[in-house]
Amino acid sequence: MPRRRAAPARTRVGLALAGGGPVGAMYEIGALRALEEAVDGLDLSDAWSYVGVSAGSFVAACLANGLTTQQMLRAVLSGERGVNPLRPEVFFTPAYRELAKRGLKLPRLALESLRELGRRPSIQGVGEAIRLLTQALPVGIFDNEPIRRYMHEILSMDGRTDDFRRLRHRLTVVASDLDSGTAVRFGSPGWDHIPISTAVQASTALPGVYPPVTIEGRHFLDGVLIKTVHASVALEQGAELLFCINPIVPLDAAAAARAGRLPEHVLVESGLTSVLSQTFRTLIHSRLRIGFDRYAARFPDADVVLLEPDSDEYELFFSNVFSFRARRHICRRGYEATRRDLRRRYGELAPILALHGLTLRADVLEDETRDIWSSAGLAAGPSRRAAALPVTAALNHALRHLERTRLPQALPPGRD
User: Fold this and answer.
1) At CA 245, angle to CA 279 and CA 76, rounded to 5?
2) Is residue 328 within 8 Å of residue 402, measured between CB atoms?
3) In the chain, how long is the greatest CA-to-CA distance?
4) What's the pTM?
5) Bridging pattern class, strands 13-17 and 49-53
6) Helix axes 196-203, 145-155, angle to 10 degrees
7) Do 163 and 196 form a contact (C-beta atoms < 8 A)?
8) Separation CA 409–CA 204 (nearest Å)
């Protein structure tokens, strides 16, 4: 039930963005564009406070630097350089130095393991031998230094800044301190001298995927390890209306199988990575819900709006982040899913937004002619070339585009 209070002259709007890897960031860009398009008076590049965790820190850092949702969306869809923080090749450069360093240890560790087995040919000896060999495993298979360099490049263009202290807006990038197990808020006093690009590098260092980032003698990992969104940061800073975008939800594969949209047991059949992904999503999503349930009591004068994909968005779960076509497709899914969510929750959200001087436009949400392409200022369809084709040819082009988007081989072709 929305509170009956007079709207302030200018509501302090906050934005908290969760992780989800490159796919999550793509989803967030599409979702944010849909949100801004549907809410009159909302300018997400001029918010009171930004909080970014993991891949969400990319998007938050760009918005805090004045980049608009339309600019970022257009960059992803058309490949324009200069405003796009999502070049997948930057995320997936092999960590050659880490791999080489660990590989050089292998002969010595193998010899020590054999000695241990000779000394104690028992279960305990086998366990110790395995423990020794695991020291040769890399702590990350991809290098995150290209992430820092690319982010610095993005924030060095057109009057932007890589310095928290020079921003016009509050930006907080959250990472996890590996050695203490605590969250560190880059951008807050004592940590605002660290470059934004370095903070983003630290916040996106997912264990096993990227190595920890060393900053002033301390090691940092992905901020999602502590909390999923860290929405309380913006609320503590005084945000009165907080929009939270979380792309990381568990897949309801059972419901999709009952509806004939996915084969039965698709997660197990898809292998270890799918099982681990579902486990990770389930854990952090349940944690997020517990945290959000507490905000009403902790921050009674603030309104929090959480936007997430539905649990049947299986294309998010199985998307190939290496594909440029998938990038555009995920942005579109984020845009469309957010429009559906806002339309479904119109009766709930419109009064809340009105308290803050914002209008949720039913006419925009009901307008079925709107799509992500026109929202980005591009010709309709996946490309300008497709827009010039006759209607049937454009439809065939779009269908081929969807078929080429990588999904598990178990998925029936053409299902959407």
Assistant:
1) 100
2) no
3) 78
4) 0.81
5) parallel
6) 140
7) yes
8) 29
